[in-house]
From TrEMBL:
Membrane topology listed for this record: Multi-pass membrane protein
Residues passing through the membrane, by range: 24-44, 50-71, 78-98, 104-126, 133-157, 169-186, 198-215, 235-254, 320-343, 349-369, 381-403, 409-429
Sorted UniProt keywords: Cell membrane, Membrane, Transmembrane, Transmembrane helix, Transport
PANTHER family: PURINE PERMEASE C1399.01C-RELATED, URIC ACID TRANSPORTER UACT
Compartments it resides in: Cell membrane
Cross-referenced InterPro entries: NCS2, UacT-like, Xan_ur_permease
Protein name: Permease
Renumbered residue ranges of the record's region Disordered: 445-468
Family according to the record: Belongs to the nucleobase:cation symporter-2 (NCS2) (TC 2.A.40) family.
Amino acid sequence: MADHPVDEKLPALKMATTGLQHVAAMYAGVVAPPLIVGAAIGLTATELTFLTGACLFTAGLATFLQTIGIWKIGARLPFVNGVTFAGVAPMTAIVASTEDKSDALPIIFGAVIVAGLLGFMAAPVFCKAIRFFPPVVTGSVITLIGISLLPVAFGWAQGADPAAHDYGSATNLGLAAVTLLIVLLLRRFTRGFVKQIAVLLGLVAGTVLAIPFGVTDFGPVADAAVIGFPTPFHFGAPQFQLAAILSMCVVMVVSMTESTADMLALGEIVDRPADEKTIAAGLRADTLGSALSPVFNGFMCSAFAQNIGLVAMTRIRSRYVVAAGGGFLVLMGLCPMAASLIAVVPRPVLGGAGVVLFGSVAASGIQTLVRAGLDKDNNVLIVAVSLAVGIIPITAPEFYHAFPETARIVLDSGISTGCVAAVLLNLVFNHLGNRDARDVTHPMEAGEEITPPHPPKARTSPDPRPAP
């Protein structure tokens, strides 16, 4: 009996090239979080290169866990795992609230380890509780992730240092705009592999165009070693602070929710529907990968939704192809010179590409909301209030200034507060009380239109049809 396409092992060359394609599709997404967090901390170029390489390395390990699997760990589906965007805003909030910035990463790592271990233990239960996370909740949260990160792209577009004389200059904004234009043109007029790596090609082209303006620094590449290893706890032993742990636990819930939705979607695409057992195994891989990641100086890991689109487009469903991509991620993590290449890219160029990258995340959330049953008044209220609550830290950064610093770690993260609001509102409006079962949206379906409580009155006019 022939193997299912998910378990098919392709020829070596095709395995390598298609695996690289998956890496290209998610590379910018993996390196963006360490860039954001590292910049917030004020890491040197060398330290930033190390942190980026560590995230690539741990993304490869997490991808192995998800695709190859061991015991009851791993969905064994073609999933690429990497640093989740959901953790960026809470991590930058932790950095902002930490007086000694050298303690920021150890505090983040400690929180991620605890959240990962708790998530691992909760995986068998969480896969049963997914009915409380319908598209109206997940769509709101994913949308908030993109909206929360867009200001980062706008900051990058202005330059690396707000105190610099050229911050926000026409040159910097012009480089960002040109990079954005290149990415858009590549997406519009190319096909296949080139179209998939449009963001990566845009970064390369923008960097080359920036050279004459003197904003491209090749120093990190020259100083980087060809071979290296992400030394365990390079930035210090993990520290455990309750507020930071609570914040990352919220992120873990968001990440597990996204991964569950991704598994259900990918299962349909590859014609191997994800049942409860598969979801539990996949969540164990995500959470265990997240718990192990800080040991090698990486962040929380989650499935990358953009690779699902790549599987759907190419129709190459083999999980071993994605495992090959994981191998490339590990190799890149072990080569600091390769990881340092991203540090060469000027911030304005990153800002131009970031508009597409982060905007696409928000657009994915909107796509999820489209099938969330927004014809129902209750769901409209859930989306409206959760988005409003989540946008508060973006539009009014000092809104919670009177709260204790420990509480602000959670409150200053629009993703965390928006997620909590969406879950609670969904429980109140769609689950509590004696309600008709048809009023409750199914986790992965849009929900049917509610029958009006009072059907329209029958017509009182005479029947125009002749009597028999």
